[in-house]
Amino acid sequence: MSEDIQNGSGEDFPIHIRGLTNAFGDFVVHEDLDLDVRRGEILGVVGGSGTGKSVLMRSIIGLQMPRSGEVEVFGHNITEAEPDEEIGVRNRWGVLFQGGALFSTLTVAENVQVPLKQFYPELDQQLLDEIARYKVLLTGLPEEAASKYPSELSGGMKKRAGLARALALDPELLFLDEPTAGLDPIGGAKFDELTRELTDTLGLTVFLITHDLDTLYAICDRVAVLADKKVIAVGTIPELLENDHPWIQEYFNGPRARAATATHERGKALDKQGSEKA
Amino acid sequence: MREWAQYSIEEAGGRATVVITGPMVVSSVGHLDPELREITDSIQTIDISGASPIDTVGAWIIFRFSQRTGADIVGASEQAEVLLEAVEDCESEAQIAPPRRRSAKQVSEHVGEKVVEFFHGVLAAIGFLGGVLMACGSLLVHPRRFRLKALVRQMELVGVTSLPIIGLMSFLIGIVIAQQGAVQLQQFGAETLTVNLVGRITLRELGVLMTAIMVAGRSGSAFAAQIGTMKLTEEIDAMRTIGVSPMEALVIPRIMAAVLMMPLLGFFASLVAIVGGAVIGDVMLGIPFLTFLARIQEVVPITDFWVGMVKAPVFGLIVAMAGCYQGMQVKGNAEEVGLRTTAAVVQAIFMVIVLDAFFAVFFERIGWI
Asked: pLDDT for A121-140, tens place per residue?
């Protein structure tokens, strides 16, 4: 962590948080919280229910005014701006909300075009349509989904459509709030794969809130653990396993975590076998 | 200042090369794209070695241009290669707008839809009425299932909390009727008849009618919005699976509350309007306040009171039924809740006024004039 603090420039560390305190009335959610997200990584954020994972995301994207502390995104201080003020970085990030938060009166294609029209009114409709179409396909939706309304989509398709909208502006930074919650394991695994693929292809930095251990093992470069109102540890999973904080131990050594580890290791062994045979 | 992507055409040895330079990202391609579309010359090569940085939108434009002209792409950086490959997989001719029909066809289709919808609506409303009656029946058989608490709560919301606004409205209406009536009646020297005018019109007509309109706006809309939102969040479905009938738990208490409170509110409104009239009588006509009230007792027949009290519960029933029915019809998205709420209020007020006209004829026929 100390090394991060010294070199914390806006380009190497798209997200840079120092001394963040969030509170609702007397209820303190975060106290003196520090976190850095490195460029190009997928950072998983875990923590028990009510530890303020979503609140942390909302304070980074400027929807929640922190009580104190500073939040820098690409070197811009978010906390000094009002929620609706133009802060010059909104076109550099994309956000996938938990329920998708698609605009229900617009089709999926129109949803994707909303941010494009907002920021780049000079784009003509033909190009907008083409962009919407390939973004929809890029997120793995069938092409007929583009003309549908959100209420006609299944839960998994809504998430993908939400991702298509989040990616509309080709952002550098992507926020995903529990992207695999409510998806079946196959759908969840496919979404993980998609996230990884897009991250590598488009060179994204991803801030990913999740409860899903499989997601953590499968795609996260580092994991930040939220507990006791702070980020108590950031690191790769093997690093975290050595941490003796009781919550971390319980989290990564619980029955579900062991199952996820086993799957992951079996998968790696199979990959290895496969590559040796080849 | 934003830097825009540029292009130039270079010809060498009969081969035309389009050289694209500058940032090929979504923020900088707005002008380049239509220009590239207009190129009709034959192009053999597209040089993108000067196009940096690049994102998927830029890659898409280059890819589509090369598809259209059949030109080869050269000078792609590593990142550009990856992005070009990614967008290549996403090529499609699919329509992204919902299919549109010709307007003549659209109009007739729309009219047809509305007619069919109307008949479905009539059927659904009758079905809803049947559902309410069934629920009433089953509550009579199992009186213990009746939700007294919900009823009392709804009575508070429909009745008690609307007293101030209905009181204020009625007071002002009483003032207006007395003042306008007095001005006209003075021309015949009959200003004392203002008492008759105020007393009879408020008790017979306006007290109950204005209250029904206010309750429709206040409570009918709330019923539709509450039940509609519960429908969207699947609360209604959850109730059904637990074995709780939404008719018994949500609809019956609301309808009963409206039916019970409407006569009380209507009577309250009439009284306050008479007080308003009496105030004007005192100030403008010189009829002492208490004399005005005493005259009311002499000039207003008791049938006027009954006319109002017979109409009130019927109006309450209509307002509550319209609200609950529209709420239960909500499905799909959040916008529907707003539409249904509006429909509930408009239908309720419309039906109340139509029915009021029927009542007027009816009471005249049975001699309650």
From this structure: 888 888 888 888 888 888 88
pLDDT in tens, B232-273: 888 888 888 888 889 998 999 999 999 999 999 999 999 999
HEC string of A150-179?
HHHCCHHHHHHHHHHHHCCCCCCEEEEECC
| Range of lowest pLDDT (A270-274, B157-161, B334-338) | A270-274
Is A194 a residue whose pLDDT tops 80? yes
Q: How far is CA B326 from the centre of its chain?
A: 10
Query: Is B60's CB within 8 Å of A203's CB?
Result: no
Query: Who among A104, A116, A138 is closest to B90 (CB)?
Result: A138
Q: CB–CB of A247/A48 below 8 Å?
A: yes
Inter-chain CB proximity B60 and A130 less than 8 Å: yes
Q: Which domains does chain B have, with CATH numbers?
A: 6-88 (3.30.750.24), 144-365 (no CATH)
Nearest Cα of chain A lies from the Cα of B287 at a distance, in angstroms, of 59
- Nearest chain A residue to B100 by CA: give it: A147
Residue A146: DSSP 8-state: G
* Torsions phi, psi for B74 (to 5 deg): -125, 160
If one counts every other C-beta atom within 10 angstroms of the C-beta of residue B188, the result is: 8
Instruction: Report the chain A residue with the minimal C-alpha distance to residue B25.
Output: A170
Domain ranges of chain A: 98-171
C-alpha distances in Å from residue B316, one per residue of A103, B106, B163, B221, B321: 37, 39, 15, 13, 8
Give this complex's ipTM: 0.75
Strand order in the sheet with B72-74: B6-12, B15-24, B45-54, B72-74
